[in-house]
Amino acid sequence: MEVDLDACLKSFRDAFNMFKSHPSEEQLKNLEREGNVLVGIGKLNGEIFLDFDVNKLLHADALSVFINIFNEMNLKDSIYQASISLLIRLASSSKIRKSLQDTFKLTSTLLNFITQQQIASDLSIVLQSLHLLQQVTYGIKIENCLGEFSILIKYLVSKIILPESQITLPCLGTLANLCMNNAVVKDFIKNMSNVKIFFKSVTSFLSHNNWMNIIFALSIFSIALDEPLGEKVFNKKNIDQTFLLIFNVLLNGENGDTCRYSCDLLIGLLQSAKLQQYLASYADLQNHVKELVEKLTLVDEESCEKILELFICLNCVPTLLATIFLQEEEEANETRIDSEYHTGSYLSIIFNLAAKQASSRFRVTSLALKLIKILYQDNPSCHHSVSELLPILIQNVRLIEDSCPGSLEDKFGCIRRSIDTLQLFCCDEKVLEIVTGCLNSQAIHRFLTKINSKFSSALTSKYNLNDDQSLEISSVFIGLTELLFQSVKHSRIGEVC
């Protein structure tokens, strides 16, 4: 039986509004029941929330109710737990996380709620709330002013310097999130009055028996990469051991969090030119990367995205990617029967990811295409396996005519990267002939007309494009125009011949 998510969200919203306007035990039970229904359908079908869209009024209303529940201090624990569970599920989307921070101000609401629950000594709810806080701050960008985050940082630091307890790990994880690529957070921490006590406490987690404690501690220390404190942790003497530890966690971790945070840590460390050199001379790097490529076929979608992002960053290590993906492909194109994960070439694994638009909702596809473009752009003389790649790229361009799930910017980002990669090869007459045979001038003109008719009046239509969507669609339009020019030019040359 198909579940109507919108009907369930509406019932939950209405139940909360009724409770607010006419508080009673009966209305409280109704609210609890509707919350449990939403949690239940999420457990039965996790994908039902993939189409949750904060731009829809009903969905925005429901999100507001999930958060406003934390402002009610006398509800049943089961209602708080339902709201936490639903928000954790929704916060797996980066777009919803951003809305929860920017529009709904969840962080400050949640911190006030946690403080109140600690006063009431309800540690179970506090722990669940901290896990939500960690989830919702993942990937957060804080521009120039800390504002409410200064209170959050002080709270997290105050808990981390205490003797270890159940709440230590999510506090470390949340602080690691805030430190990642946020210079204003780094400056704030380094100027705290208790900074020495704090880093002494963080140092103790480097020898912890829990991998995540170590990864979080290293992530926090990375804010001082170019300072004496960072030098002590990431020095030449022990950096190989540190790299080994991170790759062990990345390859052998039990869940998506270990993969995600390990990748983020490595990506952050690679911002340092000195650590790029250390990694380039790390003896086991190539073997670790090969294992990661093979693991791509097993991990969940978000972990797959993170590993691909790491590969793209590893382009800073000279010849590494070309050696793994292109040179070995040329040597014998052997099938590796000793692989635990896969029995194809490393390059074919990336090709397969570039072809899976529907299941990945374009994000994985787009990152795989970006990696492919880097590989061939940096190695222009290598056209190995292009014949296998062309049908994938051409099929991706044809997505313009398809109605499929996923955001507009992700879909058009995938199309744009496919066009960019096609253009790399179109200087080769044989490749251009294949491309123009599948994407002739009439087909490209049809695509251009479709884009123009659908989006030219977007500002006054139902689409209301944001900057990212406009940029991707414009880039696709320009790329198709260039392909059209090449197609027409090739046709005329053929006529003359």
Walkthrough of the structure:
With 497 residues, the protein is mainly α. Among the domains are: 1-136; 402-497. Helices cover 69% and strands 0% of the residues. The chain has 27 helices and no strands. It has helices at 5-21, 25-44, 57-68, 77-90, 94-102, 106-119, 123-136, 149-160, 168-179, 183-190, 195-204, 211-221, 228-233, 239-252, 256-269, 273-280, 285-295, 301-313, 320-331, 346-354, 357-360, 363-377, 386-397, 408-425, 429-438, 441-455, 467-496. α1 (5-21) crosses α3 (57-68), α4 packs parallel to α7 and α23 runs parallel beside α25. The longest helix has 30 residues, at 467-496. It is globular. Residues 334-343 and 493-497 have low confidence and may be disordered.
Please trace the helix and strand order, writing H or E for each element: HHHHHHHHHHHHHHHHHHHHHHHHHHH
Structural class determined from secondary elements: mainly alpha
User: Segments where pLDDT lies below 50 for 5+ residues?
Assistant: 334-343, 493-497
Question: What is Rg?
Answer: 25 Å
Shape: globular
Quaternary structure state of the chains depicted: single chain
Mean pLDDT: 85
The DSSP helix count reads 27
How much strand content do the residues show? under 5%
Number-wise, the strands total 0
Mind sketching the topology for me?
Elements lengths: L4 H17 L3 H20 L12 H12 L8 H14 L3 H9 L3 H14 L3 H14 L12 H12 L7 H12 L3 H8 L4 H10 L6 H11 L6 H6 L5 H14 L3 H14 L3 H8 L4 H11 L5 H13 L6 H12 L14 H9 L2 H4 L2 H15 L8 H12 L10 H18 L3 H10 L2 H15 L11 H30 L1
